[in-house]
Amino acid sequence: MDYDSEDACFYLDPPYIDADEWETLGEQVRQWEDKQALVAGNQGLALYEKIIPGARDFLQPNIALASAGAPNIVLEIGYEQGSAVASLLREQAFQNISVHKDLEGKDRWISAQYA
């Protein structure tokens, strides 16, 4: 399969819960959800620290997306991770970084452009 990085967009929901936070989650979550699918090291940021620098290898500046204000990376985040993940994105030259809230007003996802 040919890969055209000019058209690439990332939409990811990686594990982002800290191991200590896992212990505070409700019994139904801990009983039915796969811990490996939810928990990551370094306060839940470990996979972002790998994904974000690596994304630059696949994403190319996309004038059409940028002019439309559309992101080419969208990541689900934990409710206390907005500023940390935004900082990781800034360090890797992402622009137009926006932290988006859920219905309870908590950080839930972040979007950015690699332009």
Structural description of this entry:
Strand 3 and strand 4 form a beta hairpin. The mean pLDDT is 88. The chain is an alpha+beta fold and 115 residues long. Helices cover 37% and strands 18% of the residues. The longest helix is centred in the middle third of the chain and has 10 residues. The protein has a single domain, classed as Vaccinia Virus protein VP39 (Rossmann fold). It starts with 9 loop residues before the first strand and ends with a strand. It has six helices and four strands.
User: Mean pLDDT, nearest integer?
Assistant: 88
Domains, number: 1
For the record, give the distance between the C-alpha atoms at the N and C termini, rounded to a whole number.
25 Å
Oligomer class:
single chain
Low-confidence stretches: none
CATH topology: Rossmann fold
Across the major sheet, the strand order is 1-2-4-3
CATH-defined architecture? 3-Layer(aba) Sandwich
Give the helix level as a range of percent.
25-40%
Structural class: alpha+beta
Order of helices and strands: EHHHHHEHEE
Proportion in β-strands: 15-25%
Number of strands: 4
CATH class: Alpha Beta
Largest pleated sheet: 4 strands, mixed
Helical run tally = 6
State the fourth-level CATH superfamily: Vaccinia Virus protein VP39
